[in-house]
């Protein structure tokens, strides 16, 4: 792809601006570990929320959304439940508050507040540290490969994808490793502004170049309908025949069943709380529990509209202007080519550079967030605890530099070998996330659950996920989830009942500080006996109602920009009205009732 000198100038200015801002701010991070990893808990909640949204605005996920919107139309608004995207609703309603009340630095350290400091708690922390580090290495490896392929498509110089990736990694790592969370957050805020401008511009270009009649002629009946039954009932025959093959490959012909499975899995994963990555780190970096909740709520509010303007814009441009070409290619079409095709043919000079800078920012945001989140687990939970508990704070920061560099080197090494280890990496990620739900759900909601139950529940889930591809090859991950959940739940309950409960002082201290709802009756009674004036102030029913409304709110925020781009004006006003109504309800029943 050939870029004009103006576009190259815009991209160069973006890279230099990001590096300059990150290095300039980095002086704030070298005071101590709290400053380096959590920015001293001084950053405003809105900046952390925008930063978190920026880290989630990854280009790989965005291109997946484009392919889903292309194939399934408005019904694709439900498909991010597979991650699940509505975990942000659970976080904003109550889990961010619970997590922030612990006042710790890492997810592994949080386990100490829940299970104490015995042998079982040490095993739990070790499992979480391994989870955090291995998943970070995997994200770095995938980012390395993805950045290289992305740059090779757009940049005019004849360099290999790996060479491009090394250059972009070098720029990103310079400010991330040196500046810690300060550099990550403030550069991500700048990157999010760039991405938003670029994304909205793509949507407006699509509105100007494509009419509703053209979209209707290029899509099957029901494509613009967000509702679904058991059957998908989208027939692309005669339009783009190969899309029907993709639907079968995605196993989404019975879309009602698949959405139900996504909902079942997603609710349990969401109740388990965030995995130990950048999402959790930003919650712990907020100034107070109330700001943690507001930060998580802001992520959904600012992320969906610009992202889906880009998704819908690229989709309709491809549908109308690439449809005949895709039909001619048969089953060989690569949906990832939608992005370069649309930019090359429809985005004007100057804006092309800004759009590529925005997409580059998406890559760099995800990499920066992952790279900054992982070293704290090794430094705080391994090095400081077992090797140098009395070292100076600057020593821990310097060790963090080294750990970050080592993680990058390992991740880059894996990225260079990625084509040969892709299946193994998929197993690793399946094991890590497959074994997470049961144990982490129980730790919040059942007082009797102890450290050994957590350890054996995690191990049972991880081992079951690793073995699943051997004994059940070809099984869709969604349909395997109930089995993985059952095995992990069995490990959690058996490990718990075979060992003694945690000491009363540990349980009472945790309950008094975090105040979770669930099966905490015996502990609540003991805390109340010791302190008759204690009020847990829990509202599980109100939280559940807010979660249901919040999920509807999210769907409205996703559907609104898609309807806007395809110019279905009645649906635009309906989605807008519902978004305003659900926002008002959440303000009254959630935001106005938040407490620290």
From TrEMBL:
GO terms for biological process: proline transport. The keyword Transport applies. The chain crosses the membrane at residues 6-25, 45-66, 78-99, 120-144, 164-185, 192-211, 254-275, 296-322, 354-378, 399-418, 424-442, 454-472, 478-497, 544-564, 570-586. PROSITE patterns: NA_SOLUT_SYMP_3. It is a multi-pass membrane protein. It holds the Pfam family SSF. Keywords: Cell membrane, Ion transport, Membrane, Sodium, Sodium transport, Symport, Transmembrane, Transmembrane helix, Transport. It catalyses: L-proline(in) + Na(+)(in) = L-proline(out) + Na(+)(out). InterPro entries: Na/Glc_symporter_sf, Na/solute_symporter, Sodium:Solute_Symporter. It is found in: Cell membrane. GO terms for molecular function: L-proline transmembrane transporter activity; proline:sodium symporter activity. One of its GO terms (cellular component) is plasma membrane. Belongs to the sodium:solute symporter (SSF) (TC 2.A.21) family. This is Na+/solute symporter.
């Amino acid at each position: 792809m050939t870029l004009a000198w103006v576009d190259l100038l815009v991209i160069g200015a973006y890279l230099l601006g990001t590096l300059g801002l990150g290095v300039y701010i980095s002086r704030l991070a070298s005071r101590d570990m709290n400053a380096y990893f959590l920015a001293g808990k001084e950053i405003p909640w809105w900046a952390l929320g925008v930063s978190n949204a920026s880290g989630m605005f990854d280009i790989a996920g965005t291109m997946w959304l484009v392919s889903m919107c292309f194939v399934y139309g408005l019904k694709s608004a439900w498909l991010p439940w597979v991650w699940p995207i509505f975990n942000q609703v659970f976080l904003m309603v109550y889990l961010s508050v619970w997590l922030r009340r612990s006042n710790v630095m890492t997810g592994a350290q949080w386990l100490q507040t829940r299970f104490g400091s015995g042998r079982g708690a040490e095993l739990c922390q070790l499992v979480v540290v391994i989870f955090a580090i291995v998943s970070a290495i995997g994200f770095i490896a995938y980012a390395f490969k993805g950045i290289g392929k992305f740059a090779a498509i757009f940049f005019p110089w004849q360099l290999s994808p790996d060479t491009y990736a090394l250059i972009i990694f070098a720029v990103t790592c310079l400010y991330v490793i040196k500046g810690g969370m300060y550099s990550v957050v403030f550069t991500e805020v700048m990157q999010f502004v760039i991405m938003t401008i670029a994304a909205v511009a793509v949507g407006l270009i699509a509105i100007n170049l494509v009419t509703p009649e053209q979209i209707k002629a290029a899509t099957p009946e029901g494509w613009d309908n967000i509702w679904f039954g058991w059957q998908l009932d989208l027939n692309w025959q005669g339009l783009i025949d190969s899309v029907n093959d993709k639907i079968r490959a995605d196993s989404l012909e019975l879309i009602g069943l698949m959405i139900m499975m996504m909902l079942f899995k997603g609710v349990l994963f969401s109740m388990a709380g965030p995995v130990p990555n950048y999402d959790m780190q930003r919650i712990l970096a907020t100034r107070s529990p109330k700001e943690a909740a507001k930060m998580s709520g802001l992520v959904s509010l600012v992320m969906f509209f610009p992202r889906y303007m880009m998704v819908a814009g690229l989709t309709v441009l491809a549908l109308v202007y690439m449809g005949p070409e895709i039909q001619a290619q048969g089953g060989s079409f690569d949906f990832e080519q939608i992005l370069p095709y649309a930019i090359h043919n429809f985005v004007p000079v100057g804006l092309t550079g800004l759009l590529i800078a925005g997409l580059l920012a998406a890559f760099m945001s995800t990499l920066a967030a992952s790279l900054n989140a992982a070293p704290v687990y090794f430094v705080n939970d391994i090095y400081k605890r077992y090797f140098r508990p009395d070292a100076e704070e600057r020593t821990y920061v310097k060790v963090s530099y080294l750990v970050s560099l080592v993680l990058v080197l390992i991740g880059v090494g894996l990225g260079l070998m990625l084509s040969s280890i892709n299946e193994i990496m998929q197993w690793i990620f399946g094991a890590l996330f497959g074994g997470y739900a049961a144990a982490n759900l129980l730790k919040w909601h059942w007082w009797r659950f102890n450290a050994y139950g957590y350890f054996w529940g995690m191990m049972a889930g991880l081992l079951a996920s690793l073995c699943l591809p051997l004994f059940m090859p070809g099984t869709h991950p969604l349909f395997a989830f109930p089995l993985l959940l059952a095995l992990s739940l069995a490990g959690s309950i058996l490990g718990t009942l075979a060992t003694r409960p945690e000491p009363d002082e540990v349980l009472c201290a945790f309950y008094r500080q975090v105040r979770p709802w669930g099966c905490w009756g015996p502990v609540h009674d003991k805390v109340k006996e010791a302190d008759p004036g204690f009020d847990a102030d829990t509202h599980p029913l109100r939280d559940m109602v807010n979660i249901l409304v919040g999920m509807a709110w999210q769907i409205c925020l996703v559907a609104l920009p898609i309807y806007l781009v395809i110019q279905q004006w009645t649906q635009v006003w309906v989605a807008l009205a519902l978004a305003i109504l659900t926002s008002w309800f959440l303000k009254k029943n959630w935001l106005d009732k938040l407490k620290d």
